[in-house]
Amino acid sequence: MSRIVVRNVSKRYETGQATVTALDAIDLELDGTGKLIVVAGPSGAGKSTLLHILGTMDSPTCGEVEVNGVTLGALSEEETVRFRKRHIGFVFQFFNLIPVLTAIENVVAPQMFDKSQDFDRAAGLLRRFGLQDRLDHRPHQLSGGEQQRVAIARALINDPGLILADEPTANLDSRNGSEVIRTLKDISKENRTVIIATHNERIADFADVILMMNDGRFTPARP
Amino acid sequence: MKKRFSVTGYVLRNIAVRRLRNGLTVCRLAVLVAFFVLFSALSEGAHDYMVRSIADLPKPDTTGLIVMWDRESDTYNSSDLLAADRVLQEAIRPSGATGHTAGLYEQQFAMDESEGFMGQVYSLVGVDPAIPGVWKYYASEVGPKLSSGRLLSGAPSDSACVVLGHGLKDRFFPNASVGDRISFVPVNMTWDVVPRDRDANGVVNISRIPEVEVHGILKPDYGTDGRAFFPLDFLARQFLQYNGTTNTTFYQQILMIIDDASNIDFNGLESSLKSEFRSANGWDSRYNLEWSRQWYDDSVSSFKDMDATLDGWLMVLGLVGGILIVLGTTNNMTMSVYDQRREIATLKATGIDNRGVYRLILSHGMLLCSFGLVAGLAAGWGISILFDFGYRHSWGGMFFTPATVDHVTVLLALGLVALSGALSSIYPAYRVSRLRPVEALRYE
To answer: Chunked in runs of 10, what are the mean pLDDT values of chain B (444 residues)?
Structure first.
């Protein structure tokens, strides 16, 4: 389960003499367990920033974020890394696979320094996503859709409750994009919360919850 | 499926991807390590050579020697010999050393007037078997050099005879052989020892020495080449150093030899002799132990200084090599880390902590250094063997010198490279550990 609470969170960047407000005092409270949540909005709306803050990769300028009752701002650096590893999985727009590793090695990469790596689970995940013949292929030997499915498998290797996907279909054709979204939808049904940041409003068709953003604020969802 | 993720394999693959840059870094490391190993081997070879040389140095000589000559009254007689021996024996008795006193009669001459003593000096030496010290010297030093014939026996029949040194024979009596009678008359020599031997023109005619029979001829030898050995009484008579009325032989020099002077008061002995023989103007007292020990110590000290200098240079080379390795590898590592920052950011985003990032960078640096170490050791070792082989087979004059690669050199190279590898990884690892994944990922 993933209960997410965002209280009065702002994020501002200093760029030279100008200050860019990516998030502007937003509030959010939802229980996303088993749901696919789509954060939609135009470029620069603050979607990615919100995902980064929820995923502990960035910290807000002010405000507080809780995930499953854990206040993220109160965690030390080491605790933050452990929390991220245990509870959060990321899927990136450009897949971010490591070119020198095979598909299955990419999936277990988050466990590379653990005492044991769950290659069985990695292989199972890849099989589930139709990549049973691609286990030992390098990223450059895979199509975009296959690479993104490997990235999804990597996000699931530690069995996290929260999957954050930042523009996961932006680099894919519509067929592969739809396939990836369906995969993410399936994942959400396994008692996980999947949050997708996208400017592709067609993805909204798959969403259980739609959060519209513009200029760093939530806006009412269109009917 | 049972499999283990190999961090080393991952790093190796990353190294292979940037093979040119990493290869050049490895080459640079290898060259530095090879130089270090070669210099260390040469230094060690020089050290071994020095150790052998020190072992071969003559050990400090304990022989003591005192020679008195040029007495105002011209010569010493038998009473002087006895007096000198008494002083000697008293001085050495407490130490248990043995010593001999001997009277020497030796005429020296040059080849001709023009050369004087600047040319080859020849000596006519009087040997008296009744004087133990002289006879011992004669028997032990001259005896083994006999080439043909026999030595002087000291028997009364040995009156007009001679044993010829090889050089003297070659110069003046090239056709003489054992049993021949030779005369010194035709030889134009200039005597220059006893002033009263000179005539009005300052030349002493060799015709004083009548025909003598050649008893023996010596082998070529630096110490005896220019000498002719006669029975003492015979020689002394020819040069008026024998008083027939008192049956006394006069000696030019008194010689004292102490077998082991290390435990006697040598300065005290000298003082006693100078007090006894106040009129002796010529002194040659050598306590060999002191100067030979000094010489030995100086030689050892020189060798050790040279060794320390080489070690110092080795240290400087190691330090400079280490700095170059650190700078070069840091440069490469920094560039590699910059190239991989998106990968590292991704790994951090998926839960790899800073310790893991440090391990990755350190593994990268250590692997590069290991390759450089292995290649450098092999090259340095090979060149060292070549140097040693060249030295042993006398190739190229002074170019090839002894070289020894020992385990200390290997350990030093290993330590140098390990330390350099670790140091060169610290800064890039620190930089990348400070990297916030969100920034690296936003860059895309």
So the answer is: 80 90 89 87 85 80 75 70 89 87 68 46 71 60 86 76 89 89 60 46 55 91 82 76 71 80 83 80 62 79 86 83 82 84 88 89 89 92 89 74 84 85 86 80 60
Give the pLDDT confidence of A150-170 residue by residue, as tens digits: 999 999 999 999 999 998 988
- Cross-chain Cβ contact B5/A57 below 8 Å: no
Terminal alpha carbon distance of chain B: 35
Contact flag B359-A113 (C-beta cutoff 8 Å): yes
**Close Cβ partners of B416 (under 8 Å, ≥ 6 residues apart):** B33, B36, B318, B321, B322, B325
Question: Using the beta-carbon criterion (under 8 Å), do B10 and A117 form an inter-chain contact?
Answer: no
A98 has a pLDDT exceeding 90: yes
Helices (H), B57-151: 78-92, 132-137
**DSSP assignment, residue A165?**
E
Q: Work out whether strand A209-214 and strand A35-40 pair parallel, antiparallel, or are unpaired.
A: parallel
- State residue B49 phi and psi, 5-degree precision: -60, -40
Q: Could you report the predicted ipTM of this complex, rounded to two decimals? A: 0.90
In degrees and rounded to multiples of 5, residue B202 shows phi and psi of 85, 10
Shortest Cα–Cα distance, A202 to chain B (Å): 24
Looking at the DSSP bridge assignments, the partners of residue B282 are: B69
**Contacts with A81 from chain B: Cβ below 8 Å:** 348, 351-354
Mutate to test the interface with B, among A84, A114, A162 (most CBs of B within 10 A): A84
| Contact between A50 and A214 (Cβ < 8 Å) | no
Q: Which amino acid is present at A4? A: I
Which residues are paired to B103 by β-bridges?
B254
Distance (Å) from the alpha carbon of B345 to chain A's nearest alpha carbon = 9
**Contact with chain B for residue A101, Cβ under 8 A:** yes
Alpha helix ranges (H) inside B340-353: 341-349
Q: Kindly calculate the radius of gyration of chain B based on its CA atoms and give it in whole angstroms.
A: 39
Sequence-ordered list of residues with C-beta below 8 angstroms from that of B382, at least 6 positions apart, any chain: none
Q: Determine whether the interchain pair A55/B349 forms a contact, defined as Cβ–Cβ distance below 8 Å.
A: yes
Query: Cα(B355)–Cα(B349) distance, rounded to whole angstroms?
Result: 14
- Say yes or no for a CB contact (<8 Å) between B351 and A82: yes
Q: Is the pLDDT of residue A222 over 60?
A: no
Which chain A residues have a beta carbon less than 8 Å from that of B350? 84-85, 89-90, 109-110, 154-155
Q: What share of chain B is helix, strand, coil (3-state, %, to 5)?
A: 55, 15, 30
Q: Tokens 């220019």, residue?
A: B226
Owner of token pair 């560039």: B335
Q: Which residues are registered as beta bridge partners of A217?
A: A214
As a 3-state breakdown, chain A gives helix, strand, coil percent values, each rounded to 5, of 35, 30, 35
